[in-house]
Amino acid sequence: MMLGGESVKTSSLKGKVSAEEWRARVELAAAYRLVAHWGWTTLIYNHISARVPGVVDQFLLNPLGLAYEEITASSLVKVDLDGRILLQPDHGLGVNHLGFIIHSAIHGARHDLTCVAHTHTVANEAVSATEGGLLPLSNSAMLVLPQVRYHEWEGPSDDPDERARIVQHLGDGDMLILRHHGLLVGGRTVGEAMRHLWFLERACEVQVAILSSGSPTPPPQAALRKAEAVAANSKQRRSASAGASPEWPALLRLADKIDASYAT
Question: In terms of residue numbers, what domain contains 202?
Fold first, then answer.
């Protein structure tokens, strides 16, 4: 990795943390590489986090200063819900305070969600700023709409008190559109969080494309009701299987093909 033209050496943490934590680190690092591969990054900003297995008050977060393409399992920083760094990799980089506020809100209140992702893209910021938000205009939208909630923008997320309002607005949903800001999604596994992010981002991209045509056509109500039922049944099945994502093994293979160094 490079920082300021110099290589940033991060010693491997494999064997220095539990096998369960190492697996969580590898999967989370893969998620960063995949989001970079899909082009959904914002320089070194935005964040994906994963709860440390076996505890409810510790999670892993990216260091502020590394691009998503540089994230490895060993470079992730371990923090608690009060913002204390519990495991500092030797790259010496801390975490983004704004990111900590958003992620600690969810990890502190929604113990069923082990992975949380927050992104800003052209499409999702555009949809977040429209009066109607996400509309039932596509198959992708109808798959996620039952889980979508909204949180009004309060400016940069530097106020710890905003955490209570984020949690209140997310409610029992897994996906939150932050008005004039971006997306926040959670999952019971890293794989489920990436699934949620992919379909919600795709729904935003399709909506922007449809509305740019100037002549959107709403779907038949019968089709909308059927899609909502299918989405609800799908969530029930994933909940029963602890958030298993059928796409995740294939996505991990994709991450390996892109650059297997994430798992170091």
Answer: 2-263
